[in-house]
Amino acid sequence: MAISARTRSRDRRRMMRLVRNASWGLAAALAAAAVTITAAPAQTGAPQWTVPRTPHGHPDLQGNWTNATMTPVQRPPGIGAVLTPEQVKELESGRQDFIVEAARASDPNRGAPPDGGILTGDPLFDGATGGTGGYNYFYIDAGDKIAIFNGEPRSSLIVDPENGRIPPLTPAARQARQAAAAERAGRGQFDNPEDRPLGERCIMSFGSNAGPPMLPNYFYNNNYTIVQTADHVAILTEMVHDVRIIRLGEPRPLPDHVRPWMGDSWGRWEGDTLVVETTNLPAKQLGGSLSFPGGTEQMKVIERLTRVDDDTINYEFTVEDPTFYTRPWSGQVPFEKMDALLYEYACHEANYSLFNVLSGARAQERREGRR
Amino acid sequence: MTRLNGLRRSRLALGGLLAVALAAAWGAAAVAHHAFGAEFDKDAPIKLKGKIVRLEWVNPHTWIHLEIARDDGSTEVWMVEGGTPNVLLRRGLRRDCLTPGTVIVVDGYQAKDHSLKRANGRDVTFEDGNKIFMGSSGTGAPDEAQRQNIERGRC
C-alpha cells in the first residue's frame, strides 16, 4: 500500500530534522548511521536550501500540512523542555505498542461490555468516552511522533512561560468562568442545541484546529491546506472544513461588534516570515476547547509562519489577553508536509450525534420522572 | 464502572502518557466530536451480531446499519457509530470495503434514548474476531495486517 511509502518518507524527513540539530548528538549519530543518505548533503557541502517563492515573490507556504503530534500543549510536570532520546523512544514506542495492541483480534464470542461502563486509566480517553469505550482505534490518527522544532524534540508546544504551562488566569477571568458555569448549570446543559459545544454542533473543531492559535486536537484530522495569492493567504482546516482568509497589507480592522468565526486576520511579510495578527474573535469561540482555554473578546493572537525546509513550516504564536491571562504566552508547533489528501468534512448532514445527545437527555428526564 | 487491568491498561496508559497532562490542563471536558457520555448509556451495554445492510460513510461519524435476527424470527436494524471516515480514506479504505451482507460483531453501549436502536461501536469485528479495519502507525505492523485483510477480499 501507499501507506508504507508515506511512512518511510515521513521518517526520513524526521531524521533529517534531528540531524540538523548538532546539540542532539546521539540522535544525530544514530540517524547518520541508520540513514547515511540523510547525512550526506551536509558533509559534501550541498547547496544551501532556499525558500521556494510564489510568482508574486512571497515565500511559498502552499500545500497540505499537518500539526498532528504526541507532544501536548502544556508540559507535564517534572520533564525538561527538550526530551532526551530515551524519553522520545519510550513515549513513541509506548504509543506504538498501544496501536499494535488496539489492532489485535477480539474474542468472536465476546459478550457485551461491562454494565456501568469501562475505564482504561487514560484520563483523556476516559474523559472523551464517558466510560462508554468510544470506538475502535483504527478511526484515530492522533499523531504518533514527538514534535521536533528547530531540531529539538519538545515536551510541550508552549515555550513561554519557560515552564511550558498556560499562565494563571486573572481573578476576573476565574470569576467569569465560574459565573458562566453556574449559568449553564441553572438551565441545563442539554436544553437547547445552542447550549452544546461548537464541535458537537459542527461549527468548529472540538479542538482549536482552525484557531487562532492553530493547535492539534489529539484525535484526528489535524490537517491544513494553504493557498496564497498576492494579497491573501487562505488556510483550509480539515476539521471542521473551515477556511481562514488572511488579508495582507495595512490592516483595516472590522468594527468591534463584527466578530466572524476565527476572527479578523491581517498578515504582512517580515522577511520570509508571514506575520498574522487576529482580533475580533467571537465570544462563542473563546469559551475554551480541548486544546485551548480561550479568553475574552479582547484577545489578540499573533502568529508567525516560516517555511524552514521543503517539508516544514515553523508555526509560532503568542496569545495576548490581559483581562484573561496574567501574562502573554507563546507556543511553537511544527507543521509537516503531508503526502496525502485532505477530505471534505461535511459535518451537518449526518450529525446524528447532536440529535442523540438531546434525545438522550429527554429520555433520561422521562426515566427519572422529571418530565 | 469496570477498570482494565494488567498489560492492556499499562499499554493504554503509556500510550496516553503526555495526553494525561493535556487533559488535566484546564479541566475542560475532553470530548472528541461530541460527548460520548451524553449520547450513550454506560448502564446499557449491548452486543450485536448481524449482517451489514447499509453503510453511511459520512462525517462527523460513520454509521454502520446492521440487521439483527430476533428470537421470535423477526428482524430489526441497529445503527452503530464509528469515527470520522477521513482517516480511513487516507489509508485507502473506501465505503465499498464493507459490502452489504457481511456479518459483523459489535459490542458497545446503547444510545441513552433506548427507543432509537443506536449504539457506539466500541469494538467492531468480523465474525472471527478480526478488526474490520486496522490502525496505522510508523512501524508498518498494523499496515501489514491491513494488507492481509485486503488480500482476503475484505479491503
Rg estimate of chain B, integer Å? 17 Å
Oligomer: heterodimer
Categorize the overall geometry of chain B.
globular
**How many DSSP-defined strands of chain B?**
7
User: What is the N-to-C succession of helices and strands of chain A?
Assistant: HHHEHEHEEEHEEEEEEEEH
State the strand order across the main sheet of chain B: 6-4-3-2-5-7
Query: What percent of residues of chain A are in strands?
Result: 15-25%
Strand content range of chain B:
25-35%
Task: Give the helix level of chain A as a range of percent.
Answer: 25-40%
Query: What distance lies between the first and last C-alpha atoms of chain B, to the nearest angstrom?
Result: 36 Å
Task: Name the chain pair with the biggest interface and residue counts per chain.
Answer: A-B, 109 and 100 residues
Instruction: Report the top-level CATH class of the largest domain in chain B.
Output: Mainly Beta
Per the principal axes of the C-alpha atoms, what is the gross shape of chain A? globular
Give the CATH H-level superfamily of the largest domain in chain B: Nucleic acid-binding proteins
Question: What does the largest sheet of chain B look like?
Answer: 6 strands, mixed
Mean pLDDT of chain B: 75
CATH architecture of the largest domain in chain B: Beta Barrel
Rg calculated over all Cα atoms of chain A? 22 Å
Helix-strand pattern of chain B, N to C?
EHHHEEEHEEEH
Counting DSSP H or I runs of 4 or more residues, the number of helices of chain A is: 7
Strand line-up across the major sheet of chain A: 1-6-7-8-9-10-11-12-13
